[in-house]
Amino acid sequence: MIKEKTREKRPYLGKDERRKSLLKTAAELVESQGWSVLTMSALADKAGVSRQLVYQHFPNLESLLAATAMNIYMATAEGTGKAIAEHAGNIKMAIRTAALVSLDLPRGRGDALWQLISGTTLGSPELETIRIGIRDTILQLWAPMLKQLRDGDEKQGRTLAWMLVMAFWGVRQMIRDGLITRDEGLIEMDRVLDRILLKSPQAITA
């Protein structure tokens, strides 16, 4: 007679610790397989818990996706905010320092962020809403600094900020795919920044 396999008992975690553990597992799923694989069932299976437990922490898929996106993005947002604060008088150094934060992310995390930022391969209205929210968060960080290059125009500052964000991530993808080296990518980013900041030397040297 074949004995039924005994399921390993999961360790007890408090509510906050369990939620953090689930978010960590959700991020691992996304970073290894992409956003499309993250469902309530997939998270329960990966974490070795019941779907009911997952629903206790995330009432629906939208809330799970949003929490996972912020969990993945948070370290980058904090690094960007720190770069801006430390180089408030030097736009070039602020952008370069923030770029290094994102450039040095683990490959899977960087890919997951790129999908969110660019809107590629998301395939759900929930993720599209999250993408717009992340874009707005990024612009809130950068627009106050960059609008000074557009005579204080908020709209133009936001446009310039997003152009630079997309330029950086384009370079990151080329580095990721082995088309250029990391050093070559940074050199090209510096050239782009120098061209943009040329009419405002104080933005480079302050």
Automatic annotation (TrEMBL):
Keyword list, A-Z: DNA-binding
Pfam families per UniProt: TetR_N
DNA-binding region ranges: 39-58
Record has DNA-binding as a keyword: yes
Occurrences of domain HTH tetR-type (ranges): 16-76
Coiled coil: none
InterPro entries assigned: Homeodomain-like_sf, HTH-type_TetR-like_transc_reg, HTH_TetR
SUPFAM superfamilies: Homeodomain-like (SSF46689)
PROSITE patterns given in the database record: HTH_TETR_2 (PS50977)
Designated name of the protein: TetR/AcrR family transcriptional regulator
